[in-house]
Write a structure and sequence with these properties.
Largest sheet: none
Order of helices and strands: HHHHHH
Number of helices: 6
Helix content: over 70%
Length: 181
């Protein structure tokens, strides 16, 4: 069946989502970073240090996440060079196409999560510089939610590096399997 005839393109964001996102697994993966973030945010809310913690997390995010994006892109380039090079013939048959599709989608999802974290951090940094004055309770609620999102996205971006290592290992294993044959 021709994918293009069904408007099921193999390119773009829809293809990434269709091929790489299992929402049940995504929620399961993000649960631990969220719980850590929520716990830390509650501690900082109780001791009145939300704003200083947000500034620290922003500084950390804005210094770490660009490196995570760079490492992810480098790993993706290496993997693609490997797949498109010596493994291309072997991976075009059987489950190889699905394997490559899932691998591409997982790298794309890791990059999207890291880029969302970076964009959210930049927006928070810009808003922080505006000195917006509002009701104390409203400010605490907004800062609480922002802190949870910042920490969750930061931890999840770092967690994605772990999965990239697994993906690189899996690609290496394909070489070992083909060498045995």
């Amino acid at each position: 069946m021709n994918r293009m005839a069904n408007n099921e393109t193999v390119f773009g964001l829809k293809a990434i989502i269709r091929n790489g996102i299992n929402f049940k697994l995504l929620i399961k993966d993000i649960l631990i970073p969220f719980l850590i973030s929520f716990t830390l945010a509650v501690f900082h809310l109780l001791d009145g240090s939300l704003l200083s913690c947000i500034n620290s997390v922003l500084e950390l995010s804005l210094s770490i996440i660009p490196s995570i994006v760079g490492l992810s892109l480098t790993a993706y380039t290496i993997v693609n060079a490997f797949v498109l090079g010596s493994q291309a013939k072997e991976l075009k048959t059987g489950n190889g196409v699905e394997f490559i599709t899932k691998l591409n989608s997982s790298f794309a999802i890791c990059l999207i999560i890291s880029l969302l974290a970076l964009i959210f951090s930049v927006i928070c940094q810009l808003v922080d510089g505006c000195n917006i004055y509002t009701d104390y309770e409203l400010a605490d609620a907004i800062n609480f939610i922002a802190l949870i999102l910042l920490i969750t996205l930061l931890i999840y971006s770092i967690w994605c590096l772990f999965w990239i290592v697994i993906d690189i290992f899996n690609i290496g294993q394909t070489r070992a399997l083909f060498d045995k044959e």
